[in-house]
Each structure stands twice: as structure tokens, then as C-alpha cells.
Amino acid sequence: MGGKRIEVEEIPVEKKWRRLLNVCMDYYHTWREVVKEEFGYEKANELEIKWGKKLGEKTAEIYRKVGWIKPDDLSSLAKALVISMRILNEDCEALEEDKNKIRIVHYHCPEYDEYEKRGVPGGCMSKCFAWYVATIQGINPQIKVEFSKTFPKDGVCEITMHMKR
């Protein structure tokens, strides 16, 4: 094969990761827009929730394989959730009220921003909640999961998880 090779600069890992996140976000939202155009908003929302649940089930499976998450220890699960969300460039933290109740608080979420940018502010809430419930209860079905606050209403998104009594 002939020709002169064109040299291309190496892309820094962090830049690659951010681009990958943007590409994945665009893939997802393009799919959502096609479903909405073909089947309507309600069907798109229904499928998003189903997708969030399925993704949460797979996330719980991965967490179980990791092995350091103890099903009866909310703190270990909260750490895993925060790590996962920070990888996705979400600004969040876990706040332990006691050993049986922890809040995961999001101060900024690129997913929420993307829905808002595409004219569906808060459109992520049902899908994200389905993911949380499936992930958390996939680790321990005795953990109750609730939305305590949401971006559209409160300016932060907060999930509370506590052991059922």
C-alpha cells in the first residue's frame, strides 16, 4: 500500500472520555426522538422506563460481581452509586443520616441538562428512578427507594434509600 501516512495527535484520555459521554448521550437521545416520532411521547416514555429498569438490573449484576458491596450495608452501596455517577460526570454525594438511611444528592447532572436542552425538562426523572430502584433492589430487595427532591422542583435531585422495617 502506498501513500504518505498522515500523523494525527494523540487525544488525551480525559478528552476521549468526555467525547464518548457526549456521543453516548446523543445516541440515546436520537433513539428516543425516533421512538417519539414513530410512536408518540407516551410510548417513548414507557420504553425509557423499561430501558432504565433493564439497565439497573445489569448494573446490580455488575455490582454483585465486584464483591465489595454488602447487601445489608447501605454505605457500601452508596459509595458504588456515587462512583458510578461521578464517572458519568455527575456532581453528587452520599449523605448518611444513620446506618439505615442514606440520601444520594445530585447537584448537577448532564443527563438532566441534555433533556432540558432537547425541550423535555425533567424528562429523565422516570427513567432514572427506574434505574435506581432496579439497581438498589437488585442488591437488596429490602431497601426502599424514594425520590425526595427533583431538579425541576427543588434545583437538586435526591434519592433516599432506607432499609424496610
Structure description:
This protein is an alpha+beta fold. It has one domain: Muramoyl-pentapeptide Carboxypeptidase, domain 2 (2-Layer Sandwich), CATH 3.30.1380.20. Helix content is 57%, strand content 18%. It has 6 helices and 4 strands; from the N terminus they run αααββααβαβ. Strands 1-2-4-3 form a 4-stranded antiparallel sheet. The longest helix has 27 residues. It is globular and about 70 Å long. The chain starts with 12 loop residues before the first helix and ends with a strand. The mean pLDDT is 92.
Summarize the structure.
It is built from six helices and four strands.
Helix/strand order, N-terminal first:
HHHEEHHEHE
CATH class: Alpha Beta
The main sheet orders its strands as 1-2-4-3
Number of helices: 6
Under CATH, the topology is which?
Answer: Muramoyl-pentapeptide Carboxypeptidase, domain 2
Distance between the termini: 70 Å
- Taking pLDDT < 50 over at least 5 consecutive residues as the criterion, the unreliable ranges are none
Shape: globular
Question: What structural class should be given to the helix and strand makeup?
Answer: alpha+beta
Report the oligomer: single chain
CATH architecture: 2-Layer Sandwich
Can you tell me the CATH superfamily?
Trafficking protein particle complex subunit 3
**How much helix is in the residues?**
55-70%
Tally of distinct domains: 1
Total number of strands: 4
Strand content: 15-25%
Sketch the major β-sheet. 4 strands, antiparallel
Instruction: Please compute the radius of gyration using only Cα atoms.
Output: 18 Å
The average pLDDT value, as a whole number, equals 92
